[in-house]
Design brief:
11 helices, globular, mainly alpha, Tetracycline Repressor, domain 2
């Protein structure tokens, strides 16, 4: 008796799930995790998250100048008086929303990267596509709005820049855990990461001006192909021949 032939098994979708709890702990804003398991603590945490989500959305949709405590309370559907008991001033609320936006950016990115299979990450380089998808999130748009506003608001800048540098330090420290195929060339990965972020932020800023989804996807693919070429050494970093001008801050 001849047995029927079996179809070849589909390739396994292996994933490397990174435990990023330590990363989240460093960026997690105070008060969004309940201090204990009591009902009161859960409600306090839920209230804080609702207000910070609303503040982040207001920053993303209405901009820094128009994000008032009245607008945030209305968006969160909470009493403005109760909200001001937790966040006494607009500045305190904006600072808390800023910390929350950085936390959510990292959380969303890590979740997206952890969902990639080995083939998707290494061969297809879909980490860049997943990164690009985060640039339409309210957490990124709130970050961008705060970054732009901080250039002319000295009080905001004093709190924004240290937090942005903390985020950057953590990502540089952790990036090899997510892209181990780069582990033998830290400098190239650092420069490639900077290039990718600069390119994607430029796309995010100009996508509504260019208004051409096909060209946008072509540029994203160009960024991904450039990153692969750097990783595989078919494209090498070139040191500048002249010293860069000093930054004016």
């Amino acid at each position: 008796m001849t047995l029927p032939s079996r179809s070849p098994a589909p390739p396994r979708r292996t994933k490397r799930v990174i435990d990023a709890k330590s990363v989240f702990d460093e960026l997690e804003p105070e008060g969004i995790a309940p201090a204990d398991e009591s009902w009161q603590e859960r409600k306090r945490s839920e209230f804080r998250i609702a207000v910070l989500e609303a503040a982040m959305t207001c920053l993303a949709e209405s901009g820094y100048a128009k994000t008032t405590t009245e607008l945030i309370a209305a968006k969160a559907r909470v009493s403005r008086g109760t909200m001001l008991h937790r966040f006494p001033t607009r500045q305190a609320l904006i600072e808390a929303a800023m910390e929350y936006a950085f936390f959510k950016r990292m959380q969303n990115l890590v979740t997206a990267l952890n969902a990639l299979t080995e083939d998707e990450r290494v061969q297809q380089n879909l980490g860049i596509v997943r990164s690009w998808e985060q640039y339409s999130s309210s957490s990124y748009r709130a970050y961008l709005e705060l970054h732009i506003a901080s250039k002319s608001d000295e009080e905001l800048r004093k709190v924004f820049i240290p937090r942005a540098k903390l985020y950057d330090r953590i990502w540089r420290r952790e990036i090899f855990r997510f892209f181990p195929e780069w582990s033998k060339d830290k400098e190239t990965l650092d420069r490639c990461s900077e290039f990718v972020r600069a390119a994607l932020e430029g796309l995010a800023l100009n996508s509504d001006v260019w208004d051409d989804p096909e060209h946008l996807q072509t540029v994203i693919q160009l960024v991904a192909d450039t990153a692969i070429a750097l990783r595989d050494k078919s494209l090498k970093l070139r040191k500048p021949k002249t010293k860069p001008a000093k930054s004016r801050g």
